[in-house]
Amino acid sequence: MSNPLPQNRAMKKRFNSLLGAKNERLITTFGPAKLVSLPDGSTALRGGCAHDRTAAKEWISLFMHEAVPRFQN
């Protein structure tokens, strides 16, 4: 499209802000908690309550057992 609509740009900005930095990759979510892959090869779990983190730890132990995520708020 040579002349994109203004609302398309707003939607892209909103979506990118939800994901964080452009060099991060969203792996999965556990409620409001997000498990992301960082550019240095590590993983981080961001946000969520204690229940969400417990669910994430269980999922990681089953499907990504080699990962050691950092926990960030």
Describe the fold and architecture.
Helices cover 38% and strands 25% of the residues. With 73 residues, the protein is α+β, with helices and mostly antiparallel strands. The protein has one domain (21-72). Strand 2 (33-37) and strand 3 (43-46) form a beta hairpin. The protein is globular, with a radius of gyration of 15 Å. The termini are far apart.
List the topology elements.
Layout: H1 6-19, E1 25-30, E2 33-37, E3 43-46, H2 50-63, E4 70-72
Parallel strand pairs: 3-4
Antiparallel strand pairs: 1-2, 2-3
Descriptors:
73 residues; alpha+beta; four-stranded mixed β-sheet; 4 strands; 38% helix; 25% strand; globular
User: Given the C-alpha coordinates, what overall shape results?
Assistant: globular
Mean pLDDT: 82
How would a textbook summarize the main sheet? Answer: 4 strands, mixed
The whole-angstrom Rg is: 15 Å
The helix fraction, in percent, is: 25-40%
Number of strands: 4
Distance between the termini: 39 Å
- What is the number of independent domains? 1
Structural category is: alpha+beta
Helices and strands, in order, run as HEEEHE
Biggest sheet: strands side by side, in what order?
Answer: 1-2-3-4
Strand content: 15-25%
Which stretches are poorly predicted, pLDDT < 50 over at least 5 residues?
none
Q: Total number of helical segments?
A: 2
